[in-house]
Amino acid sequence: MSFDVLKYVSEAKEELDRTLACKHTAFDDLYPYMMEQQTFFWYKRHAAWAGLLMAVRIAEGAEADWKHLFNAKQEAMITARVLDKKVLDEWLEVTEDSEQGIVE
User: Fold this and answer.
1) Quick check: 96 and 73 in contact, CB under 8 A?
2) Please, which domain of life does this record's source organism belong to (predicted)?
3) CB under 8 Å to 84, separation ≥6 — which residues?
4) Contact criterion met (CB below 8 Å) for 16 and 51
5) Which helix (H) or strand (E) holds 80?
6) SS3 letters for 2-51?
7) What is the pLDDT of residue 104?
8) What pLDDT, on the 0 to 100 scale, is given for residue 94?
9) d(CA 62, CA 88)
């Protein structure tokens, strides 16, 4: 059984990108009745962030180089490991050193 840890990190990043861009994610399908609750959107963001941090921890444990999947600003946010206003406001911001874009 093989496991592509970098694909796992990339998928977690895509889930966070989609969550912060207010796009539909698999999480919405798990809790369709929660869409009416205002706290759902904060919880959804928290769950996506926690999923990304877990994917990065697994990659680090496997000694995989995950950093090239992110721009420098995103890498710094992941290293800080704190979901704060800066992450919510600036994660999807396009910077000169970024080759990533918002996932449609």
Assistant:
1) no
2) Bacteria
3) none
4) yes
5) helix 72-80
6) CCCHHHHHHHHHHHHHHHHCCCCCHHHHHCHHHHHCCHHHHHHHHHHHHH
7) 38
8) 57
9) 28
